[in-house]
Amino acid sequence: MSRSIATYRIYDDQADFRKKATSIAVGMTVGSWTELPAAKQEAMQKHLGEVVDIQVHEGWEPGSRYADISIAYPDINFSRDIPALLVTVFGKISMDGRIKLTNLDLSPEFLSAFPGPKFGIDGVRDLLGVHDRPLLMSIFKSVIGLSADELREQFIRQALGGVDLIKDDEILFENELTPIQKRVRLCIEAAREVEQQTGKKLLYAANLTGHTSKLRDQALRAIDAGANALLFNVLSYGYDVLHELSSDPDINVPIAAHPALAGAIYPSPYHGIAAPVLLGQLMRIAGADLVLFPSPYGSVTMPREENLGIRDDLHTVKLGVKRSMPVPSAGIHPGLVPRIIRDFGTDVVVNAGGGIHGHPLGTEAGGRAFVQAIEATMKSVPLAHYAEEREELKAALDIWGGEA
Ligand SMILES: CCCC(=O)/C(O)=C/OP(=O)(O)O
Ligand SMILES: [Mg+2]
């Protein structure tokens, strides 16, 4: 019988964890068990959840306790979609005290319904023709209220800085000045102009927004206007919307998943869903080609072990789909590039907004500083040494600091 296993961390100083685990396994599947007549029990056996592991630990505070509990849920109980999975394994019990969903071990049967990322790491690299180093992405900043000309000008400045991708900020929604088709047309045209000068291909991830019922048409309009990538605020819509977009054959461009709202779900040790599940595994099987998340060392941080957990879930062969590109973000500046590459390897996107636009010599110099920092790190040259002959990197290190 095909089963998917959910692991929870439950904090309770008094609980009989075996009893608690059994009540979850029964309550989230067949509802009640011991009261059922034998004939009914036999009929319902195939639907019954099972406690497969309980590990009890002493907590940090004296006398406190917690347990890691794993429960197997028969795949027969729920349909092959993420909403059904999440309601089954963490619907009602997510509201029942101090309990956090920390891991999902999904069955091959369940995973068979998920094509995963259309492009993945290798496909994005193929689009750009860059295979031997981290990618560099910049983010429009102070973008609300910009006219089309101002947006185009900012795009060109970023492109001339040598970035591989440019993304909308996640707070750029449909608006009268730069509706998606208009801004895609002007940015892609600008990308082609700059490519004439630099020879560099560019992906522009336009933010796909608006009512759910209109997203597919919106995406097709953007692609018709020349869009070669999309940004999507997954958690405000739900994973299944991403799944529908990513598995649509007509939406043939990479999708970058933004983590907006994730901070309401992953940080607490006592509640919510662990970051590797929320921003690693589920984003990848829902089809995100690139996944943004708070880095361990920027302005909006996430503990390093959770970052590395996301990295591992975006790469693991266990999920049986293409790998998604990790994009550790927020407060990234050139001095952090060696740490990023040390933690994530070269299959990573170095992503910055303020770290590019806030450069003392301007946006173009900000991009060049990152390009230089990546070059130095790939050559195993200390940034400070590499900066001796490169004013853009030197200015960035002077203002934001160098590698730890
Ligand atoms: C984790 C998401 C980061 C993000 O959306 C963003 O705009 C970052 O900007 P900077 O912190 O690099 O300025
Ligand atoms: Mg942003």
Automatic annotation (TrEMBL):
InterPro entries the UniProt entry points to: Diketo-Methiopentyl-P_enolase, RuBisCO, RuBisCO_lsu_C, RuBisCO_lsu_C_sf, RuBisCO_lsu_fd_N, RuBisCO_lsu_N_sf
Record-listed E.C. numbers: 5.3.2.5
Enzyme class: isomerase
Domain Ribulose bisphosphate carboxylase large subunit ferrodoxin-like N-terminal: 5-95
Domain of life according to the entry: Bacteria
Domain Ribulose bisphosphate carboxylase large subunit C-terminal: 120-400
Keyword set includes DNA damage: no
Keyword Amino-acid biosynthesis part of the UniProt annotation: yes
Family membership: Belongs to the RuBisCO large chain family.
Name of this protein: 2,3-diketo-5-methylthiopentyl-1-phosphate enolase
Organism of provenance: Paenibacillus ihbetae
